[in-house]
Amino acid sequence: MKTEQNQYTSKNHQENKLKCANQAEILRSHQRDTDFIAQLQEKLSDLLNDFKKHKVLSRYLISDIPANLIYFIFTTGMGNQTLGEEYTGIVQTHLKAYKIPSLSARIMAMILEYFGERTLLKGLIVLQKRVNDPKSQLTPQAIILLNSLLSRLRLIIPLLVLIHKGLFYMFGRYYTLGKRLTKIDYAKVYGSSSTDDISWGLRLLGLATLMQCALKIWQNESELKNNEESIKLVETDMHRSCQLCTEAISTTVTPCGHIFCWLCISNWLRNKPQCPLCRENVAPQRIVYLMNL
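== RING-type E3 ubiquitin transferase ==
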């Protein structure tokens, strides 16, 4: 009797198993949410116009982040469906665990979606500015290496997002990288499903997106190679010319092995008795004028 009951329960669970929403349903849901968020952003801007200091506050509404956060709090943050999810009959869920995602997972997905790419790119820009700061203690070789690395990362991050979008068009499930990392899926719970023709159309769109990514990668590699060649040429010229004025020929060497023109390095050491490149202490009388160059 128990065996028959267990078989019935297992069969009933399989029949009631959540079905994964397809690409078209997820896209329609996000499009509806995006339209509502745009309307919400306009309402917030109109509301600020009623205040005297609306010009000061309105700059914070240039981006869509405030409207997105408000929308998230009253929908996904409170465990409710968004308007787009209600319209298409889908819900956020963990399909394998057969449960609603935890609040921490939903918040993490939101942070990664709204701030992940932007924060990373802004952080790389700030870091690159610090690397190129004249007050930096880095050597020229380290500056060139770090600039090359940071430039590559700034190109790779948007490409990863685009590649993920192409994979979503082809295979469905996770719409954003944030939801993939937090394992938040979409399940179809009511309403009619989309036809397979739409899914095939989206798969073709995904293939075109991946081809676009491949083309961008090839273009970026060509640009980086050209930049590296230019940097090498500049570096070669720097070894021939003074690295301070970049005009006169280097004729004077410091004890640490760096060469400059006599006028630049002698004037530099009068004000600051340190090598301009490696910061090693150098007395003005220790520099040597090279004769046979």
